[in-house]
Amino acid sequence: MCHLLSNAPALEKRFDLLKSKAHPKHEVRLLKFAHKKISLLIAVSLIIGSGASLDAKSKKDKDESRSQSVVRELSGEPVKLLDSMPPFMVWRAEKPKGNIICLHELGMYNGVFEDLGKSLSKEGYTVYSMDLRGFGGWSDPKYGKDGQMDLKNTLSDIKAAAEELKKREPQTKVFLLGEAMGGALVLEAAAKFKDLIAGIISSAPGGEHFGTLNNYTTVASRFIAGNKRFNKGEKLVELATPKKELQEALKQDPKIRLNLEPRELMACQFYMYKTKKFARQIASTPVLIVQGEKDGESRPEGARKIYDKLATKDKQYLNLPNGDHYVFEDTKVDNDAMKATIAWLDKRANASPL
Question: Are strands 230-231 and 287-292 parallel, antiparallel or unpaired?
């Protein structure tokens, strides 16, 4: 969900108005100037960030539309793993073969791994799902600026969580599993924290999206208009998965934030472009790349490129003909995906350290 679509970007309307008032020979110069201005604004936003607040009307409309929505039923246990972070959602195994830290997609929260966590716990894995900064429990006012989306600090959170689990259970291996933006984060974590991580599962990490040029125009126009959050997430959900039941579950869940700031979208997209670099830096950590063929948001070939760039010899590519953008965040994880994931984990959990 790192990009947004629009059939009539506000910026294009502004350009048309300016063009109608300009002499024909100045039109090309005008458009070039506007393009440079947009590029500059995008660059500045990535360097200094922007703390724009949620538009009051947008928030009111969202609250009213979801006041009667159905909350996803969670069987996991909220656990305060680290004092500096919101509680993790945990699904415990009786005799854990390994601990798994799950990282969600942009806009989601720790509860979206409910079916995955419940299923893996029955197979002997304790699952710890964390809220990424900017989402879920981080919306609590007590976190202040620390609760805003920040990928660098989120990476530090991942390291701190892995260190805490190793401290509590030194003999139990720690794995990471992430989807989309979460999939990119687990790649960087594996590249930088190889002594902590026994293996990673990265789903839809490619970052190559359909309609990229139109997406940039839309986000840039929104940034110029004030960087306020806007809700195009429901349309993206419809593109990301063809499953109507899953679409409704994601749209109706009040803990999922589908209205995003342009700054957040740009930060996510530019971060996803680094995944090939992360892949080259993973020298030996086991990696499973997962991609659904019915993903209408991210191009499947992007995930294959990440796989090809991996330096580690212990790598596997799982292609799912019936999979979409939400392989592991689905309300019911695909049986083929679950079986392959468990088999991959069992092999690495029982393997001796190199």
Answer: unpaired
In tens, the pLDDT along 93-105 reads 999 999 999 999 9
In angstroms, the CA 83 to CA 143 distance is 11
Beta strand pairing status for 98-103 and 88-91? unpaired
- Domain membership of residue 60 (yes or no) is no
Q: What is the pLDDT of residues 247-270, one digit of tens each?
A: 999 999 999 999 998 899 889 989
DSSP assignment of 221-262, as one string?
HHHHTT---EE-HHHHHHHH---HHHHHHHHH-TTS--EE-H
Residue 207 DSSP one-character state: -
Q: Is residue 336 part of a domain?
A: yes
Q: Which residue has the higher pLDDT, 336 or 51?
A: 336
Does any domain span residue 38?
A: no
Domain that holds residue 123: 65-210+243-349
Instruction: Quote the number of domains for the chain.
Output: 1
Structural domain contains residue 105 = yes
Question: How far is residue 277's CA from residue 306's CA, in Å, rounded to a whole number?
Answer: 9
Pairing label, strands 98-103, 125-130: parallel
